[in-house]
Amino acid sequence: MPVLVASDLDRTLIYSSAALALTMPDARAPRLLCVEVHEARPLSFMTETAAGLLTDLGDAAVFVPTTTRTRKQYQRINLPGPPPRYAICANGGHLLVDGVTDTGWHARVLARLADECAPLAEVREHLLRTADPVWVRKHRVAEDLFAYLVVERELLPEDWVKELAVWAEDRGWTVSLQGRKIYAVPKPLTKSAAVREVARRTGAELTLAAGDSLLDADLLLAADRGWRPGHGELADTGWTAPRITALPERGVLAGERIVREFLRTVRQPT
């Protein structure tokens, strides 16, 4: 039976220059491979070692990139290894099969959101009304499914995020702070639901997962085994659960360790 490996991307497998956490002396820094270019600039990186391991993983398992990114943002990424047959974008709102949205899956997601959550327009209006332009740099809506803000972290009032989370909870939404982005996402819009669908289609009986943020918690809980890096929202809150390994590594070396753990477990699943 195939093993399904579902991994978050940003700050789990791939890293911006600001998130690399290269704390070692320069001469000992790992060689890096650029895996994303945006507007003619290198944007995201892996270590060269992680890139080689990911290539091996793509040959040995059903590797499923699982991201909150929009489809357009995801398609900028050029991961090493064979092109994944399946990818999950927009936090589970889009299931891509050979790069194309599965319209049946997307329709089921939309129906559930309409039944269970306050509408996106209400949430966006609240964000526009309560967020201070002093610390907000951008307002964005992703795939007509969820909203996020790009903020100046050093100016962001901590109480504002907590108040937003309480307000959103009452309306069936969740809030996640990741780097310079604050996400407001409908609770039923989950990576885990889409991963279960891929497991059903592929016949996988073992699912491995990794992620660093609150939006990855449901993905990790749905997996048979999971890993989280030593940085990010889950690490900052001390989040853990059975079958989840909290790694000590931070930054791009955590990404390398995660791929190594995936490959080791695929080869020796017991």
UniProtKB/TrEMBL annotation:
Sorted alphabetically, the keyword list is: Hydrolase
Protein species of origin: Streptomyces lavenduligriseus
Keyword Hydrolase set for record: yes
Its recorded name reads: HAD family hydrolase
Q: Name one GO molecular function term.
A: hydrolase activity
